[in-house]
What does this fold into?
Amino acid sequence: MSGVSETVPQKTFYLETFGCQMNVHDSEKVVGTLVREGYRQVESVEQADLILYNTCSIRDKAEQKVFHRLADFKKLQAEGKKFGVLGCVAQQEGEKIFERAPHVSLVCGSASYRNLPEMLVQLESVPAGKRERRKVETENLVRITGLDDRQTDKCFETEFTARTNPHRGYITIIEGCDKFCAYCVVPFTRGKERSRTSTSVLAEARQMADLGYTEIQLLGQNVNSYKDPEGKKTFAELLAAVGEVAGIERVRFTTSHPRDFGRDIVEAIDAVPTLCDHVHLPVQSGSTRVLDAMQRLYTREQYLERIAWMKSAKREISITTDVIVGFPGETEADFNETLSLLDEVGYDAVFSFKYSARPNTPALGLKDALSEEEKSRRLEVMMALQKQMQIARYAKYVGRRLQVMVEGYNESRGQWIGRTSQNKTLNFTASHSGGLRIGSYTQVLVTRSFPNSLVGESVV
Ligand code: 5AD
Ligand code: SF4
It folds into this structure.
């Protein structure tokens, strides 16, 4: 990076990311910001002066990961390395992290990343280096926090986003969440909903297209709750406009909330061929009673109505979902309703989780009556049913020609790795590699299927 003298050793940082795509993209922005501040990213904690964790707290297991990492590498503090905790656990636990892991110097929630440059300057005032070990041990107690409350109306926009993939990239369109589902920690970790203007989103999309990106994924905790601060575009209109940017071949969006999922989104997919024929629509439960207890704001019937809109689309839209099993009070009958919903919808993937009680959430007060064993049993039953359904669903593609974006090459298998518009993995061989490279598009004839992927042969 310009401005950094070659004689001054560059400050280095290591960043590990946990959690969702939103966190992955936040990390790309954090990396860009740090590089701009003169830091260099390194691949191991041993090489780094500053060790950062971008954390997830969606379930207890995810939250514990960061504390395990901090414990594993605590000894490196003696070498003068500094530790920072970013993201959802940072926002949720705040200064309590310093008590649990006193070697941490920086705690910063996602709503405060725009203040990172100043926080880094403060952090640098803490001396580092082996020779100053004693000083470090005491002065590392310098504790820097960035913990906005829910009231911030600022988005984290930066022109320094360091995207890791040169062909497909994320654009955040909305941050935070106002829904307060009874089980969910997100409204507490990511603050209130705030949308970017459609003008700035479209400018970023055009800039990415100019740089050679062909696939864009619009991100938000609830993308379809998007409200243009300029009042110019609805979510469906923004989606269509991004799909019409010259050079963009594929547009995806995640995650959608069923309550705000309008028919206009399906109409946009019908009208604009670059909008991918895949929708991730988390249902969480097939029982209206449980949905009510979860404060999901829709019934089973309303959810199925949205599915019916998608099934009447011109292209076959692949549908995927998230399900929580063992929410407090979920009976066997409720669980069976979830199984019957999976059967009725026919998903191409189901991400299923055992309910995990989270701090601050409304469901914390509910009696968590189900044992871990029972939750595990239900999870297994559901996964077994879904696997059978996916075997049948994926088998239907054998004999069809599908377009893929080439994502990689697996040397040991001698196979290219491709992704279809429906977001399915399609591994394929090619008798000649003419024109094939990562990021290119090609037609593949499907010859075999597995429960989670397809196999084929390039037909160009
Ligand atoms: N326990 C289990 N799963 C959860 N999810 C969100 N909160 C919890 C929780 N407390 C799941 C939901 C959501 C996905 C990202 O994680 O299914 O859609
Ligand atoms: Fe995890 Fe949710 Fe935070 Fe994403 S937004 S990192 S899923 S807690």
Remarks:
- Residues 19-20, 22-23, 56-58, 87-88, 185-186, 189-190 surround iron/sulfur cluster (ligand 2) (CB under 6 Å).
- The domain at 401-459 is CATH 2.40.50.140 (OB fold (Dihydrolipoamide Acetyltransferase, E2P)).
- The chain has three domains: 11-146, 168-395, 401-459.
